[in-house]
Specification:
Rossmann fold; 5 helices; 22% strand
Length: 216
């Protein structure tokens, strides 16, 4: 199971097991969550996705905390993943958010995008946190993309080729995407598909994926 923290999912497009949202409709109004769900499904068609809508654009920390509390109450088999496709500025008051996420990391593998600001990952949370797997994006030449955040004190855990990734938008049209949310979604799909939370095993899977994409 992947708990997809994003902008929601348009249900006609993706087979989400269930959906949760706080004081808003769970459907995707901006398209980001739907595209990420379709990226996951393109790699792992049998993956169960639980859509956790945290907002349409810039989520509020209070809303995110409610969503994290909801996931904390769910039963887990020890193999479930939280894919948290958002970052907050480290200048905000994020202590409660990071504390709750750290608590959940004892039960879930937490995968997050590095961010798309071409800056140090240290400036963003949860990407800067040691208890999450932070994912940066590469192009087909296996070079860091122009938008991907980069290493700071926190070293990025996984680098995934994301350029020109095929996805499906809310209107069921094919789109080509890139960026760290795409890269993180690919990493989560590979982890769930192979039933591994071990970082070394996941790095090997990512390397094999990158080699295949670069070759094609």
């Amino acid at each position: 199971m992947i708990y997809l923290f994003d902008s929601g999912v348009t249900f006609e497009n993706n087979d989400c097991v269930e959906a949760y949202a706080v004081n808003q409709e769970p459907q995707d109004n901006v398209g980001h969550g739907t595209c990420m769900a379709s990226v996951i499904k393109s790699i792992n068609s049998s993956c169960k996705i639980y859509s956790i809508k945290i907002g349409n654009d810039k989520p509020k920390i209070s809303t995110v905390l409610q969503c994290l509390n909801f996931v904390e109450q769910q039963e887990t088999n020890g193999q479930d993943i939280i894919l948290f496709n958002a970052n907050f500025s480290s200048l905000l008051d994020i202590s409660m958010f990071e504390s709750k996420l750290k608590q959940l990391s004892k039960k879930y593998l937490i995968i997050v995008p590095a961010g798309n600001d071409a800056s140090s990952v240290d400036l963003y949370s949860p990407a800067r946190c040691s208890f999450v797997l932070t994912v940066g994006s590469l192009n087909k030449s296996k070079k860091i993309t122009s938008v991907s955040n980069i290493d700071g004190t926190k070293k990025i855990d996984l680098w995934v080729v994301s350029t020109n990734t095929l996805a499906q938008d809310r209107d069921q049209n094919p789109v080509r995407l890139f960026g760290t949310s795409v890269a993180a979604s690919i990493a989560a799909a590979l982890s769930d598909l192979n039933g591994t939370k071990d970082i070394d095993s996941l790095r090997k899977l990512v390397t094999e994926y990158n080699d295949t994409i670069a070759f094609n």
